[in-house]
Queue: 3 jobs
Job 1
Amino acid sequence: MSAPSSPSALVPSAAGPDSGPSAAELLAFVRRVAADATVVASLPLDPEGRTWIPLDGPAGSEAWLIGWPPGTGTGWHDHADSIGAFTTAAGTLREFSLAARLPADGWRTLELADGIDRSRELATGQGRAFGRHHVHEVLNESATEHAVSVHAYYPPLPRIRRFSRSGVVLRLEQVEGPEDWQ
């Protein structure tokens, strides 16, 4: 399943033609796709688990349409060296994130400082962009309604780091590559 070709056309990134799309361009793309009711309706929804369809992302990016049954979430993770964006296409999602840049490598456990926790509710049509090593958790907190979202990453995800959290302690639990989620 691919996103419509005309909505995905982007203005070249100010950073240069070989650098790929910017976070703002990814956000514009996911917003356009999320507003396309035909694309959103093409996602099969499963009451037991998340579902997803790959999309044709702009300028070599990776993009996904994702369905979230009630009560599901991602757990704490980052997208390593990729920038990204996502928009809620249906329902409401909650994002918990850390307002701190974590080291890229070389650690297993970190004690988090006070005041770095953030929470935002993203209703239909709302989205956000983020930079490299952005640690977050995304949840559908509804007890009854599915949510659907559109995500894009550049460069295509080389890895995802998964974390556990206990109070102020964040622990690296697992590093996944594309073969683990595609």
Job 2
Amino acid sequence: MPCGAARRVLVVGGGVAGLSAALELAERGYQVTLKEAAAVLGGRLHTRDERLRTGTFRVEHGLHMWFWQYYNFFDIIRRLGRERCFRPLVEVYYEFKAYRPEVVRSVGPYPFNVVNVVRESSNLSLLDVAGARGALGDMTGYDHDLNHRRFDDETFEAWGRRTRVSRRFWDIVMAPVASVTLNDPARVSAAEMLLYMHLFFLGHPRAFRRSVATVDHGTALIDPWVARLRSLGATLEVSAPVAGLLLEAGRAVGEVGSPARHDAVVLASDVGGLHRILAGTLACDAASAAALAALRARLRRLAVAPAYHVLRGWFDRPILRRPVEAVIETPQHRPINLIAIFSMLEEQSAAWARERGGSVVELHLYNTPELSGLGADVVYESIRGQVEQLLPELRGARALDFSLGAFQNFTSLEVGQGKSRPTSDAAILAGIPNLALAGDWVHTRYPSALMERAVSTGREAANHILFADRVREVSLSTASKRGPGILPRFG
């Protein structure tokens, strides 16, 4: 940082994006104050302590998986020395209603990894692939610079019909991708899904490989991340909502109602928080008012996905499955989109299951506004038939307790949202040179999504501040902007 200068930065939002920006700035000597509206840090990686009838447990927001191309997130994991808390999960297990179960593995190099998926499939043949050749052209020919311009005004389902994807190929390959986005699959943008397929499946021969935490996300990552920030002198506040920012002379100087002044601000809340903060932001002069109006206009179309629920249950029966079945994706069993057998994944749950002869199961229920306001017991009874169909071991089992997370904080992937996303420098372009944006709702000029986009845009936000202060910026590692084509073309 500039010689002899003490630079103060306010980071609004204590999720992955805010923590990412805070880490880069604090490591470079900035005085960072981070404020989070919730009672815990971590955003969608938060971990809460719950006292249940069966004991006290650390319960996450829900199972998350780290894909191979989460380059910047894995950099943070390495820097925090937490690699030992993660293990690979290289196969994906699917349960369907209309088809046989699938175990999907991607073994490179390209294109043999794709060919082998079809060759080893329980349901697909090369004829099914031939029937999807129109869609495969868009997938393997992915171009990040053109993707949203070409496909963001079209739903994924309409794109599938237009490219004449066969029903079997759609059900087994395409529909599962849309079902796990937490959005309404019928309204998801084709551009967003093509980005997902490029980033998570086709953008690199190893893109399909994933890792999962072997302990709760707080122990694995958020707690050491917070400890590192505090060791660097950062101030971290929870249950500290920011009502709005204060703009003076075209600059963000602090928050409404606080006398503290800052040299720069990173706005890293979720979309709902973003709109609340912008609505409460005060401009003290004409230049600030004009910049604020431009920024509000730029961000006003950003939306939030429908409500979703994550239900974890402790049962008095064990579940003994193959390791590949520790995570079961269930695209045809709505509202259940994914089952995670935590007693096969996480040390705390495994220890409880061994001691009690039971099992711990997490059910992901996406796009479920109809469940809002219901208690955990009622939610479970409404899906019990499907649970027991997917996990016959639980027929007649007694549920000892539940933990229910009800959320509506995920970024919308509906048609038109991709083209509405701002870049991390959108506020700077609007005329507020010391305000940077970060979050999975921010557009990146390279392929990214979910937690990796949050980390990457946090790093970008820090870089805008570093650049203005003539401090060396943080490097970014990114996935290829282009699909592999018919022949390998990775870069």
Job 3
Amino acid sequence: MTQLQQEQQISVFGSPGADEAVEDLRAKLANGTRFMLGIVGAPGSGKSTLAARLRDFAAPDASVVVPMDGFHLANSIIDGTPLKNRKGAIDTFDGGGYLSLLRRIKEQQEKIVFAPDFRRDIDEPIAASIAVHASMQLVITEGNYLLADSGPWKEVRTLLDEIWFVESPPELRVSRLVERHMAFGMDRTAAEAWTLGPDQANAGMIESTRNRADRIIRWA
């Protein structure tokens, strides 16, 4: 292997820790059995990006990403309630529904399990948007509260083979969130207020679960 090839191999995921985790994951997939991987981190940490890249690199023809965000409570449920001003907090998700979906996926008793997705352009979950085929070996689920230890969330950990906690530099994470909120309709003032308010409150809660993860992935 040339030095250039070695450098390219090292930089596939942008950090040695992530590259090592991917190689370990590939080894675990070698036996052909289903592997369920959780990716957790604070808002803006890069969970979705990492999950998508893992899908493509680890098992591109036999993997799928199932986001926890598909279990956001619909706006018709939270409009006019205090939850509206805390959308994204743990109690604005259907934790029981998410847990039930993971159980169905884990059992592999159905030819296809359909999972919901979340559409940021309309700010709503969409049912049955993702097909999880029984033949898919790697199922990656990503979200904020996979390591929470209250209510139905505490059982999520028992259904996943590993959970990786993703962390990014705080200033980068905040910048990403502000830009994301602006891209979906907020002006800068509102985007910064939401990022430093509800988003940051959720981030603190999520970061308190960090010590329960199997791996810490520093992802810039």
